[in-house]
Structure formats: C-alpha cells, structure tokens
Amino acid sequence: MPVDLAVITAHRIIPVIALGSSDKADGLAQALVDGGLPIAEVTFRTDAAAESIRAMADRGDILIGAGTVLDVEQVHRALDAGAVFIVSPGYNQAVIDECLGLGVPVLPGAATPSDMTAAVNSGLDTVKFFPAGACGGPGTIKALSAPFPQMRFVPTGGVNAANIGEYLALDCVPAVGGSWMVPPGLVDAGEFDRVTGLVAEAVAAVENRRGGRR
Length: 214
Known about the structure:
This protein has 214 residues and is of the alpha/beta class. It has one domain (5-202): Aldolase class I (TIM Barrel), CATH 3.20.20. 43% of the residues lie in helices and 15% in strands.
C-alpha cells in the first residue's frame, strides 16, 4: 500500500524499535495500536528485524517502516517483509536513489548543511535529523531551517517525554522519532500493558500540546 510522508508523520511520533526476537512483535504492535499510535520504525539493528517487520505488517492495522537501513540490499529485504517506508541513520545516496526509484518514502539521516544540500538536490523535502540531541537539538534545527526553509526535520536520538514539546513547537518539525514509550526492558519482558500506558501518555502529551490540531 503506497503511503506518503504526510501519513507517516500524522501522529507526530514515530516509535523506534529494536526487537531481539520476533516473538514479541505482535504483542508490541498491539500495544502501539491500543495506545493510539499505530506506527513503528523497526530497526535493522538485530537479526530479527525482517521477521519482526513481517509479523507486524501482516496484521494490517499498523504502519511499519524499516530503520537503520544501510544499503540497497536491506531496502529490498525490508520492503519484501512489508515495510512501507525506509529510514537510514546517515545520508546514503544509493539507498535514497533506490527508494525514490521504487516510489517508497525515505527519511535519510542528515545533520549538516552538506547533507541538506544533497537532500534538496535529490528532490527531498524531509529528512531524519540524527542524532538530534548530540547535534544541538532544536537550536540546530532552527539554524539549519534558515538557509533551507523548504526542509522539514524528523529529529531522532535523544528525544524524550521531557523535550518532545521543544521539537514539536517548531513549524519545520512534522514529527519526532523516539523509543521512550517502548522501553526494551518492558518489551523483552512482555509487559505490553505497561507499554500501552506509556504510548497513551505520549499520544496524550502531543494532543494536549497541539490542542487536537493535525
């Protein structure tokens, strides 16, 4: 099912997930759906990534992307498993070109003016700002948006419940990526009711901040 970036960023939070075992994938997907956040970026940081993507995507009630995609081969593994968008930690032109050629939304990692220039030249208008916290957070995004007013940023890395409002207050930030609502300890322990509660809290915080505005 083709999607666009507006759909991907609509909830304003993209949970970033690394699953060591695919047997937790369905329970985690249910927790996200129950908490009101039916979207996830499943990272290729573990051997269980493709299988986890498949298990979650096959449900049909949650939008699944693949993260930490480092090469074209992983792009195809992710798409074959059911991912509908691709996220990379750095600016990889081969990955970007492959996704654009396939009509698949891609969020490349970018943090410098050179990255932004390359993104604009590739026809992109949205990037993953990573690692957000280490690269100066909202202040750096403001500085970058001045010479690149057409660019939108999805900050990831160091984003949490305490600072999400600072990021989402910026007009050039349609969404953030983070894992604070899906802590690995709870996921590994199968404590999905607690995960659901954290997800619901994150969703409520966004809704309260924007007053229900999309």
